[in-house]
Design a protein that fits this description.
By secondary structure, this protein is of the alpha+beta class. It contains 2 helices and 11 strands.
Length: 143
Amino acid sequence: MDLIPFIPKTANYQIWYPEDFIVDEDEKGIVSITSPESFSNLTLSCYSIKRSVTEAILQDFFREATENYTASSEMKSVTTENKIWLEGDFQRENIFWVWWVLSHSNQIILASVNSEKIIDSADRHLFRFMIDKMEIYPVDIKE
C-alpha cells in the first residue's frame, strides 16, 4: 500500500494516508481522511498553546473534548521522546468513536475515527499507524 503525505494549510503537522483514501480540509483547518471501503472517517484538528504541553494539560484537553461521549474503555497514555499521546474508545448515540489526542512541544492534535459499527481492528490499526507516523511541528506564538 502506497502512502501519500499531506500537510494542512496551517502546516502544523504532516500525516501519511493511503492513496485511495479521500482527504478534505475545511476553511477552519479541520482535516477529514475517509476510507472508500469502510467509510470510517479520521478527523484531525490542531491547537497551539503558549507553552509546552504536559500530560496533565493533555488529559484535561482530552476530557473536555470527549465530555459529551460515553467512554467504553479506559484512557491509554503513551509518552515517547517526542510525543505524548492519549487514546480512548467512546460511543455517542449509535456511533462508535476512537479518540486520540497527541502533542509535541506546544502543539495539540485532536483526532477521532467514527463509524456506525464498531471500528474493526484493521481500520483501527491503519488509523493508529497513520497517527503514530505523524510529524508534528511546533510553532512560535506571538503575544
